[in-house]
């Protein structure tokens, strides 16, 4: 298929980009307007952090008239689960922004959300290379969502990388596939002026006593990696070689989303690393990290059968999960500022600031 590419400066790309609202003013402000067209935006976080919830909101908000949306249809590419239509229906009924639309404004609908399954890496490459461009032209697509980007790569390469002899070859093949996929998505975003948003999984930053996963091996193969890698949960606080700031130990905290000491929130504990390593990080335009942290409280124990503590002693009890929306890097913003605390409700992702205003 012949694609006609036009050359333009970065400023021209930003100026011609249209934005898709997250349907929350605080989150939109953190993104300097929302999710733009012409870029690949990654949303990463651990299970239950809210990645799919944001993707579903974008599938609906992209259908809105400008300036909130693009007034176009959307495409959902799934590598793990089918399109959650029940949750989309709930969002349509419960989201406060969608419910406040004027009668003259067009409302989003599930009829304008196309869905394609990507069962494996071979099918994924074929569909993105040939079918997605056709679908964009034929169905007036403005947003392409992939949920999630790491699933097929993990299924394809995790097993072949477990043995020592096949590990280097698997890493080399995976790097080549990631670069090819990144090039495809970049061309699609720029040629058709669509927003490409992908979700990504995360891996724990292992201590030196645990074997590294393929994601950490991929990181260690980066040209930026110049010293022996001994990742630790205390990595951001560990002394680093100031004479060599390009070592992986120094760089991880700035582009991974976890461990940046200037943010002063939960990214400093329970450290994670986005899947697919440094090679994939070079393919995306922006990264948004959804940070998830447990909040504990004390509950009074009155169990008469306890013998290790006196009756009435306090125990730690999980009260709720604290979630933070953190822009790690994005060329259309001023840089990763302070994160935005948010919650997941029936109406979707909502910042605590907006939740307080609704209660007021």
Describe the structure.
With about 350 residues, this protein is α/β, with parallel strands linked by helices. Helices cover about 35% and strands about 20% of the residues. It contains twelve helices and 13 strands. The strands form three sheets. It has a nine-stranded mixed β-sheet, sandwiched between helices. Strands 1-2 form a two-stranded antiparallel ribbon. It is globular and about 65 Å long. The protein starts with 9 loop residues before the first helix and ends with a helix.
Topology:
Layout: H1 10-16, E1 19-20, H2 25-30, E2 35-36, E3 40-45, H3 51-61, E4 73-78, H4 85-94, H5 96-99, E5 113-117, H6 121-139, E6 141-147, H7 151-157, H8 167-192, E7 195-200, E8 202-204, H9 214-220, H10 248-255, E9 272-274, H11 277-281, E10 286-300, E11 314-329, E12 340-345, E13 348-351, H12 352-359
Parallel strand pairs: 3-7, 3-10, 4-5, 4-6, 6-7
Antiparallel strand pairs: 1-2, 8-9, 10-11, 11-12, 12-13
Q: In percent, how helical is the residue content?
A: 25-40%
> Treating each run of at least 4 consecutive H or I residues as one helix, how many helices?
12
Mean pLDDT: 81
By helix and strand content, what is the structural category?
alpha/beta
Beta content comes to 15-25%
Order of helices and strands: HEHEEHEHHEHEHHEEHHEHEEEEH
Cα-atom radius of gyration: 22 Å
The description of the largest β-sheet is: 9 strands, mixed
Give the termini separation: 55 Å
């Amino acid at each position: 298929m012949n694609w006609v590419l036009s050359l333009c400066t970065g400023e021209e790309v930003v100026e011609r980009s249209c934005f898709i609202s997250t349907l929350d003013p605080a989150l939109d402000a953190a993104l300097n307007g929302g999710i733009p067209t012409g870029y690949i935006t990654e949303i990463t976080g651990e299970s239950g952090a809210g990645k799919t919830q944001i993707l579903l909101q974008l599938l609906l908000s992209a259908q809105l008239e400008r300036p909130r949306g693009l007034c176009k249809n959307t495409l959902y590419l799934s590598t793990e689960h089918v399109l959650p239509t029940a949750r989309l229906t709930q969002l349509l009924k419960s989201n406060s922004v969608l419910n406040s639309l004027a009668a003259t404004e067009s409302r989003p609908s599930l009829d304008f959300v196309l869905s394609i399954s990507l069962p494996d890496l071979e099918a994924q490459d074929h569909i993105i290379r040939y079918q997605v461009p056709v679908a964009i032209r034929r169905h007036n697509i403005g947003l392409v969502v992939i949920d999630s980007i790491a699933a097929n790569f993990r299924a394809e390469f995790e097993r072949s990388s477990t043995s020592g002899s096949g590990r280097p070859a698997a890493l080399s093949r995976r790097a080549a596939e990631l670069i090819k996929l990144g090039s495809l998505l970049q061309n699609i975003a720029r040629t058709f002026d669509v927003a490409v948003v992908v979700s990504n999984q995360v891996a724990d930053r292992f201590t030196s006593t645990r074997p590294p996963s393929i994601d950490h091996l991929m990181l260690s193969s980066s040209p930026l990696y110049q010293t022996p890698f001994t990742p630790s949960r205390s990595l951001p606080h560990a002394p680093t070689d100031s004479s060599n700031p390009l070592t992986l130990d120094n760089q991880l905290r700035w582009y991974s989303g976890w461990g940046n000491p200037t943010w002063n929130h939960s990214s400093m504990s329970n450290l994670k690393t986005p899947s697919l390593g440094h090679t994939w990080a070079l393919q995306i335009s922006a990264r948004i990290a959804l940070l998830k942290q447990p909040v504990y409280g004390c509950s009074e124990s009155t169990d008469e059968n306890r013998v290790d503590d006196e009756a009435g002693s306090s125990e730690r009890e999980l009260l709720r999960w604290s979630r933070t929306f953190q822009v790690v890097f994005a060329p259309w913003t001023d840089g990763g500022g302070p994160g935005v605390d948010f919650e997941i409700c029936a109406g979707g992702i909502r910042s605590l600031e907006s939740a307080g205003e609704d209660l007021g």
